[in-house]
Amino acid sequence: MTDTPESPPLRQWLGLVAVSLGVALIVVDITIVNVILAPIIEDLSITSVDAQWIQESYAIAFAALLLLTGRLSDLHGARKIFLIGLVVFGVTSVLAAVAPSGGLLILARFLQGIGGAMILPTSLALVNATFTGKARGQAFAVWGSTIGAAAAVGPLLGGWLADFSWRWAFGINIPLVAVIIAGVLIYLPPSPRTRGRVDTLGAVLSAVGLGLLAFALIEGRTYGWLITTEPLTVGGVSWSGGPSPVLVALVVSALALVAFWRRQAALGRSGGEPLMDVRLFGIPSFRNGNVVTLIVGLGEFGIIAVLPLWLQFALDYTAFQAGLALVALAVGSFCASGASFPMAATVPALAQVRIGLVLEIAGLGLLGLIAATDSAWWLIALALFVYGIGVGFATAQVTNIVLVDVPADSAGQGSGIQSAARELGSALGIAVLTTLFFSTLASGLRDRLTDGGAPDGEAERLSGVVTESAGSVIPALLAEPRTESAGEAARAAMTSGLQISSYVCAALLVLALAATLFITPRAEPEPDGARPEPPQPEPEHARPEPGHARPEPVRPDSAQPEPDRPKPAGA
Hints:
Elements: H1 10-44, H2 48-64, H3 66-76, H4 78-97, H5 102-130, H6 133-162, H7 168-171, H8 173-187, E1 193-194, H9 200-223, E2 232-234, E3 237-239, H10 245-269, H11 284-314, H12 319-325, H13 327-343, H14 349-370, H15 377-403, H16 411-451, H17 456-468, H18 474-479, H19 484-515, E4 542-543
Helix pairs in contact: 1-2, 1-5, 1-6, 1-8, 2-5, 2-9, 3-4, 3-5, 3-16, 4-5, 4-8, 5-6, 5-16, 6-12, 6-13, 6-15, 9-10, 9-16, 11-15, 11-16, 11-19, 13-15, 14-15, 14-19, 16-17, 16-19
């Protein structure tokens, strides 16, 4: 690519590749652990409680710090925070790879989540600041497709690496981090910074509120939503009765987030320096786009949590084969990225979001229709391919819409808020879908066993065993002639669970599609290479990083403005 008014310089596209690889790294580490957990349990001799915290400590730390790291991005520069996040992620990957015990691995995963929270919102801010015009939509297409593809590739990579050692699932991050850091330093200029400070109390309230909310959504099915059903043990202290720790976490989270919002609104009115400028929600594209982001997260990520279980235990795929099936989703996501390049000049971002959502709905509907205990692999691949194309369009361009009108000096805050909406939407979607999936499995298996003549007590016991094992005992049931019929009933019940989950996810995405009607498209298309003035002007106190001149924004047409073109609405 050459440096023309229509196309940004090649170095910017190479910088985008580096940023997208950084995002892929943190998304893969969310999904890869699900596949390597069994060998970790065997190697480190850890309990099921430890295993659960290895999975969830990363996600909880990640969600808790997104708003704080978004603000730090504005104050210290997006590139700097992105690089620090990569270093933290790389160092903690070494710690995880050599961990001799479950406790140290949990600590490493928690610290990895801190690194991930630095990477995601700053990646958005970097893309938002580096590209303009038609290229901006194309860049977000690459960024969004990376998320969808990485979520699908994680189980495949984990299944392959588990054949060698689970430690390689973390060790492989180290050379990748080095390559990404080199790419960012070479191809992306230092980001502008804004004078200011961090609202410490606001940071604490947001971390407590978001962290506890993420914990509650993730662990509700395990510990009970209202009454404690399983003891929670942390640091030798056990919570074994009374109100559920999930209920308490939800109450404390709500109080903390309400206090956080009130404090941020008060700081904004008084001319203070809020961690999250609530006036950003006065921008219609930002406010309504984040609502769509939240609902899309609800519908998109839940199915990825339960699909590998169905493939492995109902269809008898190996972990590697299940990961391979999900590659169709990744391929579809990248196809959407390629298609978006020629579409960027003629198809608005909002229309691409709607196209993506329609394709996601179609893919999930097809998956529900073809789901059976003997489903052909090519039908599953076709459904996931269509779904993946939709993910590639919708995930990327909804981010484009959310950030398009955010002022440059608030890009980090805007990115942090959008990342938090995506993360909480996905956590809530996973909570809803896994609860629905396992409830359907338990009730469906119990009904099938009693209809087959099994005593009520035996049916209840077997359904409990299958559900508690997440279906992993089904192969053992099928292998014994005495329990083969129960195994077949479990396969059928799990398939019913997947069908219902597919339809519910599709319904949630229909709701997201309806929510896009509240996003008002621009009255006039954004000219190539030019960017409209934001609704709120940049503050005069913006300053460059010490030792660096503030880089000129990439606006190739800025030297030759178009005076006869009206400004977009809201500018």
